[in-house]
């Protein structure tokens, strides 16, 4: 018998998934503000260059740093919100169980291997950068290139965390725990609420 989402205590593994989701959600909500910071910093760089005939390599590189952080650390959050591009030829026609199987198998045989490959293949590259505390090649640039390159390890690690969440949620759902996966209508509402709370939200009303 399936466990109803509104009755009884949640399984321990489901609570683990929810705690892990909090990590990716918090990181994603935080780095989303970098999009606004990038716009403001770019504005400052342009004003300095064309109004005051001045420039700063460090300020210019800071925009690149913020973009890298936003992209790399926001990838797992975007995956959590089902925001990555997907070709829905058959997926939308599947039942909830069918989608759960697709998500479970896709996580195990695509997401996890690719994330592990990125983690292992980047390890030596990042370690070499840490060994010399690599800095900018430009005079006056930012010194933390070694920290920036660390994102090559953090990003696949966060993707693996999200992969574990999906394995737990979809596995539990297939095992009969209905509470493990949100109803599609509820999930759409959650994504809409998340978008409304994002600093990137724009007013599209006429």
UniProtKB/TrEMBL annotation:
The chain crosses the membrane at residues 30-52, 64-80, 101-126, 146-168. Keywords: Cell inner membrane, Cell membrane, Membrane, Transmembrane, Transmembrane helix, Transport. GO terms for cellular component: plasma membrane. It holds the Pfam family DctQ. Part of the tripartite ATP-independent periplasmic (TRAP) transport system. Belongs to the TRAP transporter small permease family. This is TRAP transporter small permease protein. It comes from Lamprobacter modestohalophilus. The lineage of its organism: Bacteria, Pseudomonadati, Pseudomonadota, Gammaproteobacteria, Chromatiales.
């Amino acid at each position: 018998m399936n466990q109803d989402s509104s009755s009884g205590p949640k399984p321990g593994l489901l609570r683990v998934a929810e705690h892990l989701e909090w990590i990716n959600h918090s990181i994603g909500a935080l780095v989303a503000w970098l999009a606004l910071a990038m716009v403001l910093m770019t504005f400052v760089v342009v004003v300095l260059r064309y109004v005051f005939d001045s420039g700063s390599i460090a300020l210019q590189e800071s925009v690149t740093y913020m973009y890298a952080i936003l992209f790399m650390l926001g990838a797992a959050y975007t995956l959590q919100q089902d925001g990555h591009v997907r070709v829905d030829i058959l997926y939308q026609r599947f039942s909830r169980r069918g989608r759960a199987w697709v998500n479970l198998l896709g996580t195990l045989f695509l997401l996890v291997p690719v994330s592990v490959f990125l983690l292992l293949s980047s390890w030596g590259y990042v370690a070499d950068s840490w060994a010399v505390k690599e800095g900018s090649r430009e005079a006056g640039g930012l010194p933390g290139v070694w920290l920036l390159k660390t994102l090559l390890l953090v990003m696949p690690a966060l993707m693996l965390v999200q992969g574990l969440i999906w394995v737990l949620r979809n596995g539990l759902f297939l095992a009969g725990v209905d509470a493990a996966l949100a109803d599609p209508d509820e999930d759409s509402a959650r994504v809409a609420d998340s978008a409304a709370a994002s600093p990137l939200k724009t007013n599209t009303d006429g």
